[in-house]
Amino acid sequence: MFIIIFTEDLIRRNAEHNDSEIFSLEELSLHQQEIQKLENIDKWCQDLKILYLQNNLIAKIENISRLKKLQYLNLALNNIEKIENLEGCEGLEKLDLTVNFVGELSSIKILQRNIHLKEIFLMGNPCADFEGYREFVVATLQQLQRLDGKEIERSERIKALQNYPVIEQKIREQEKAYCLKRSKEKEEAERKLQEEEEKEKQKENRNNPGFNERSYTSIDNTIPYSLLQEKDNQQPALEEKKVSEKTPDELDKEFWEKPTLFTPESRLETHRYLVKQRKDKEKLSDRKKKQKPPRTLITADGRVLNINEPKLDFSLKDDEENNQIVLDLAVYRFMDTSLIDVDVQPTYVRVMVKGKPFQLVLPVEVKPDSSFAKRSQTTGHLVITMPKVGEVIVAKRKACKPVKNPEGNKLQEKKGSKEVEKLEVDPSKYSFPDVTNIVQEKKTTSGRIQAKPQVVPCAEDPDFEDNLEVPPLI
């Protein structure tokens, strides 16, 4: 049977409001955890003041007697049949035992030592149906102020104390009758449980045929053993066939509509049924997962694919200044880092996020050994830095000295220089030639200074440098 173990880790998971610290924990809620037994809680959480344990499968109150500071204990909707082990809870003020199976009403006498107890809930228990139930509780626990949500008046307590001997005798008789009834219910429940276990074993034997600890030789050699075995298993096989013909929905409906008594055993039976359903669903989901074909990350010819199964936003930056590639992956902010697995290869990077692959082909080859990953504490983003293979050398351009082609040298200097281009002073530099004066070598001018022809520098002079900022000579 599936049992939730009461562990320290279980308490820490439910103590997030106290930074998962259990030694100073004052309030703890462990409702609907399918807990069947209380263990070590009085050792780990001695400062507890409020403890919620409702809607579990706890059958006995135990291991909480050392909680001296406990003020409120909620054990509603459990399988408790007797009030016990609460004498040490000196500060207990409120006790909730709604809808349990308390039949020994006289067991409340142990609460007489809890002098601070002001309120108790026992509605929904078998003892609440006893004749004289309220009068007995009011007279027994004189420190009580409220019972089942109703205030206890002074006149009510005086009357209950006057009739206490008679009421106590009635309660004793009803308790004996209830105990006999419970013993029969327990025997019936044990018998049903054994029958269910035998059916399960027979079902497993049919599903796994083989040696079943029976002799394979018959006393009468004239009767084949196969016929004897077939005769023994014929009736159970027919019953199983009828059951197997029903759909899961029909079986589920039949279980919930079957009339049954409300007992601790019936609650456990329901719990076992729910656990079985849960396991069947898990097996079915595991089969579906196994049937699902694996994701192809690299093709048969060795080609790496780009995959984003977790559907995460990302950015890939080529940092040329630092000679590296940076991948920024927008991982879920509140996801645990242990669910992330990073694998950097020379030509691609792969990140597994909760088992789902994110794979990206890199534009250049990187160094896996020098790569590293960091995660932001504010945004949760995963940043992977991958240095490139080899170093990139950027050569600085230098001005070339003119050697052969001076005009080409000027154009190169103009392209290399980043200064603002200025207008030429000499208008004859880019003027068109006069066709009429081609033949004439010399021409006299009167009263006008003739511009001297521009001297073309010799390309053979190694020390010559043409500066455009210097105007031409006149």
Give a short synopsis of this structure.
The protein has 474 residues and is an alpha/beta fold. Among the domains are: 8-181, Leucine-rich repeat, LRR (right-handed beta-alpha superhelix) (Alpha-Beta Horseshoe); 307-387, Sandwich (Immunoglobulin-like), CATH 2.60.40.
Structure description:
Residues 190-219 are annotated as: Disordered. Residues 207-219 have a biased composition (Polar residues). One of its GO terms (cellular component) is cilium. Keywords: Cell projection, Cilium, Coiled coil, Cytoplasm, Leucine-rich repeat, Repeat. Residues 130-148 form the U2A'/phosphoprotein 32 family A C-terminal domain. By secondary structure, the protein is α/β, with parallel strands linked by helices. Among the domains are: 8-181, Leucine-rich repeat, LRR (right-handed beta-alpha superhelix); 307-387, Immunoglobulin-like. Helix content is 30%, strand content 13%. The chain is built from nine helices and 15 strands. It has helices at 8-13, 41-44, 133-140, 154-162, 164-207, 225-245, 248-257, 264-291, 406-416; strands at 27-29, 50-52, 72-74, 94-96, 119-121, 146-147, 150-151, 307-308, 314-319, 324-329, 340-344, 348-353, 356-361, 372-375, 382-387. The strands form three sheets. A seven-stranded mixed β-sheet has the order 1-2-3-4-5-6-7, covered by helices on one side. It is elongated.
Please give a handful of descriptors for the protein shown.
single chain, seven-stranded mixed beta sheet, Immunoglobulin-like, Leucine-rich repeat, LRR (right-handed beta-alpha superhelix), 474 residues, coiled coil, repeat, 13% strand, four-stranded antiparallel beta sheet, leucine-rich repeat, alpha/beta, CS_DNAAF11_C
